[in-house]
């Protein structure tokens, strides 16, 4: 059973970028905004984090830069869709395509650079405890942050006044507006939070997961994060389960191949996506439950009645 | 502008043009070489190495040669448009550097019989269309010899892209090299089903190391598997270009594509008027396949690697020298014979002894 610890460690690293990006998008969507630009925001976050870390030598500065870059990207989106009221789906797609190209342009000077991966937590004595030590106390900062963020989001949405206001804006922007809440301002903030978390997810890829910059290195993880939010029916708890299940299946298929289990590798590569579709079907068959959680105004532009 | 002025201008242009052509005939022809890459030159792998070759033409031939390139050209309808554009803008030598450019290159070559075309890794040729590729499997044999000497667990982890002949040939050649010095080595292969996804390639490498592999080989394009090897404290090989920067403690050597000599010789041939359509499949001896400096190994292994490299270059060792059986036990290459190029190009079977099943 000595493979189990490294196996779990690999699953955690494969799941973390998904969880970071998806938890941000969850807040964005809860406010009624559908931002399909996650992939683009992640890529820009990844290159910003890498470029700043490589040039300054400080990973903390790199992480801050990734957060700032992701936020800036989401501000472009927010300005277009919330202020100018452009179509959210089209703008989100454009943001992704822009992010792919822009990150490649900025990153062209950083190809082939090597940096040290983010340092892992090391508590003398405790991190050395067998099994539990390396898993619970041997991760890098962003892994803990991803878990803390989800716990914070769960508390925010269910227990805090601000969270209730956010949900109200997502469920009925006209009512929220009538009571006196600033729908546009709240949506701006929620979109920016989504951008910041997507930037962090990207930084996790370029600073910890595979510490390098390569064009299009997210390879579709932004889209998976988007699917996860729906998969989780906008619930933080299920989001963690979904992200880790996704990480588990994608790592498991590689392990199975190495162990010589003869299943077509293409089928194995398909498995995580198949699982997503199946769970979507199961969850969606209970319409009442989905309606309970889905933000009713998602994707709709808001124009205050004159 | 009135009509007579237009006429006079046209006449002047025609005269200058005629003069230029006359001068060109008197001297050696200048080369204007165009390159079409499938990826960005910043991929630090395949397209990057082709671009180094392009720069070699400019460095070697100086003013007599000019070059240009288009990067990230998708393999499809766009490719034909880009190739034609190059042919129309005065390029007399055009390199198309990906297998998927084969049909568009052939089509444009027919329309421009005076332009010379060079297509990498394909098999369609014409009077003005050459093909060229490199015998990377020779480098993989040397890597196998090193791995056979360096492994302690006798398990080699191999991250493959797709089970196509190019990759299968590499695995076979690697294992023949490894078994030549250590018959107990086994290989575990994980197919990533992608040429390029750093995260997934890295995860595949982690899975292999978790299962006991202490040598990492890859046939995918990003440095991620080698980087994982570095972080996990095992050894590995670089792919396409020297990746020592990513793995100063892990890289044993890298199988490097080197197109410099070939590109310069073909450009010179156009200048001298000696260019002819041909098929080139160059190995270590031609300089197309290079091995990066041998690092992180004891001197005796290094000496053995250098000796193997030299013997392959001289032809003393052929990686696929018979007798070679496939997994079903069928004799594929007879004793005293070497594999033919045709067999190598279509290789879709594992050699006997590889304990894995080839995905169909």
From TrEMBL, chain A:
Subcellular location: Cell membrane
Name this protein carries in UniProt: ABC transporter permease
Transmembrane segments annotated in the record for this chain: 6-26, 33-53, 59-80, 92-115, 135-157, 188-207, 213-232, 239-257, 263-283
Membrane topology: Multi-pass membrane protein
GO molecular function terms attached to this record: transmembrane transporter activity
Domain of life, source organism: Bacteria
Record's keyword terms, sorted: Cell membrane, Membrane, Transmembrane, Transmembrane helix
Automatic annotation (TrEMBL), chain B:
Entry annotated with the keyword Zinc: no
Keyword 4Fe-4S part of the UniProt annotation: no
Coiled coil: none
Keywords, ordered alphabetically: Signal, Sugar transport, Transport
InterPro entries hit by this protein: ABC-Purine-Binding, PnrA-like
Origin: domain of life: Bacteria
Ranges for domain ABC transporter substrate-binding protein PnrA-like: 31-312
Signal peptide segment: 1-28
The protein, known as: Simple sugar transport system substrate-binding protein
């Amino acid at each position: 059973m000595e493979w189990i610890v490294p196996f779990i460690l690999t699953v955690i690293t494969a799941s973390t970028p998904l969880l970071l990006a998806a938890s941000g998008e969850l807040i964005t969507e809860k406010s009624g905004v559908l931002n399909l630009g996650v992939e683009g925001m992640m890529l820009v976050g990844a290159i910003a984090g890498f470029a700043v870390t490589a040039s300054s030598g400080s990973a903390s500065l790199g992480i801050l830069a990734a957060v700032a870059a992701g936020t800036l990207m989401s501000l472009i989106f927010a300005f277009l869709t919330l202020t100018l009221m452009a179509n959210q789906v089209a703008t989100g797609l454009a943001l992704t395509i822009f992010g792919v190209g822009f990150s490649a342009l900025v990153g062209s000077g950083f190809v082939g650079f090597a940096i040290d991966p983010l340092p892992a937590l090391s508590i003398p004595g405790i991190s050395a405890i067998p099994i539990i030590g390396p898993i619970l106390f041997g991760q890098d900062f962003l892994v803990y942050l991803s878990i803390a963020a989800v716990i914070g989001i769960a508390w925010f949405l269910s227990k805090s006044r601000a969270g209730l206001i956010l949900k109200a804006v997502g469920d009925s922007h006209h009512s929220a507006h009538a009571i006196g809440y600033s729908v546009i301002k709240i949506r701006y903030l929620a979109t920016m939070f989504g951008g910041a978390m997507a930037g962090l997810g990207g930084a996790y890829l370029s600073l910890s997961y595979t510490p390098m910059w390569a064009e299009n290195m997210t390879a579709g993880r932004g889209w998976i994060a988007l699917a996860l939010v729906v998969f989780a029916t906008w619930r933080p708890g299920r989001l963690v389960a979904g992200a880790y299940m996704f990480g588990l299946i994608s790592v498991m298929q590689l392990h199975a191949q190495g162990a010589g289990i003869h299943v077509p590798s293409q089928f194995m590569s398909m498995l995580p996506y198949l699982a997503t579709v199946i769970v979507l079907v199961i969850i969606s068959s209970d319409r009442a439950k989905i309606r309970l959680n889905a933000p009713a105004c998602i994707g709709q532009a808001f124009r205050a009645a004159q | 502008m009135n009509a007579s002025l237009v006429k006079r201008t046209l006449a002047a242009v025609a005269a200058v043009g005629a003069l230029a052509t006359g001068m060109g005939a008197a001297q050696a022809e200048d080369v204007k070489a165009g390159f079409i890459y499938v990826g960005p030159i910043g991929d630090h792998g395949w397209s990057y190495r082709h671009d180094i070759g392009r720069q070699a033409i400019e460095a070697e031939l100086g003013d007599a040669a000019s070059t240009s390139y288009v990067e990230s050209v998708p393999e499809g309808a766009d490719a034909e448009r880009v190739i034609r554009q190059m042919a129309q803008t005065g390029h007399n030598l055009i390199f198309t550097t990906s297998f998927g450019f084969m049909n568009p290159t052939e089509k444009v070559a027919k329309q421009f019989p005076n332009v010379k075309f060079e297509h990498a890794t394909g098999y369609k040729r014409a009077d003005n269309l050459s093909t060229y590729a490199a015998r990377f499997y020779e480098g993989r044999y040397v890597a196998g010899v090193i791995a056979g000497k360096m492994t302690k667990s006798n398990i080699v982890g191999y991250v493959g892209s797709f089970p196509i002949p190019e990759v299968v040939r590499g695995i076979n050649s690697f294992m023949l090299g490894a078994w030549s010095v250590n018959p107990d080595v086994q290989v575990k292969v994980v197919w990533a089903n992608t040429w390029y996804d750093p995260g997934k390639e890295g995860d595949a490498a982690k899975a292999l190391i978790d299962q006991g592999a202490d040598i990492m080989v890859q046939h995918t394009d990003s440095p991620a598997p080698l980087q994982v090897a570095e972080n996990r404290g095992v050894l590995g090989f670089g792919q396409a270009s020297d990746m020592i920067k990513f793995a100063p403690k892990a890289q044993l050597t890298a199988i490097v594509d080197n197109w410099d000599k070939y590109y310069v010789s073909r450009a010179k041939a156009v200048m001298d008027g000696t260019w002819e359509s041909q098929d080139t499949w160059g190995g270590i001896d031609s300089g197309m396949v290079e091995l990066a400096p041998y690092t992180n190994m004891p001197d005796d292994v290094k000496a053995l690697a250098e000796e193997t490299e030299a013997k392959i270059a001289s032809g003393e060792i052929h990686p696929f020298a018979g007798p070679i059986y496939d997994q079903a036990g069928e004799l594929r290459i007879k004793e005293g014979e070497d594999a033919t190029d045709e067999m190598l190009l279509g290789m879709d079977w594992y050699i006997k002894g590889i304990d894995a099943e080839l995905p169909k």
